[in-house]
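Structure in, sequence out. Go:
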């Protein structure tokens, strides 16, 4: 059975308990890594400046503590494999739904009205819908 590295565990611990529940269930079946949980002001604004985030601090779901968002990817990571990212997201969303936890995935922003560009692709991003 896969398990999280110390680094992934530390990043997941920064996330809302509901996100922790989902990803602690996901890791039992699918090897994955937690890329990011909480994101401080300097990093959020840097990613915004680089075009890697649509929101400036403090508007991002990563900016609260605990974080309302997590970035995660199947391991080993292949940043260019959209199909694998999409299959992983479907699994994560299915696990969350079975647990009664509503998540939004960054690969499908159709339901996200906070971003200024609904075509923004963030295949590794999952956030709570509270």
């Amino acid at each position: 059975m896969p398990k999280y590295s110390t680094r992934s565990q530390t990043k997941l611990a920064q996330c809302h308990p509901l996100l922790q529940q989902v990803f602690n269930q996901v890791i039992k079946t699918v090897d994955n890594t937690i890329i990011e949980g909480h994101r401080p002001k300097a990093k959020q604004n840097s990613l915004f400046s680089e075009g890697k985030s649509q929101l400036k601090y403090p508007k991002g779901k990563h900016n609260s503590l605990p974080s309302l968002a997590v970035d995660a990817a199947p391991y080993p990571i292949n940043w260019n494999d959209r199909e694998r990212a999409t299959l992983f997201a479907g699994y994560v969303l299915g696990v969350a739904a079975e647990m009664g936890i509503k998540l939004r995935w960054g690969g499908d922003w159709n339901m996200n009205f906070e971003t200024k560009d609904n075509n923004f692709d963030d295949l590794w991003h999952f956030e709570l819908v509270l």
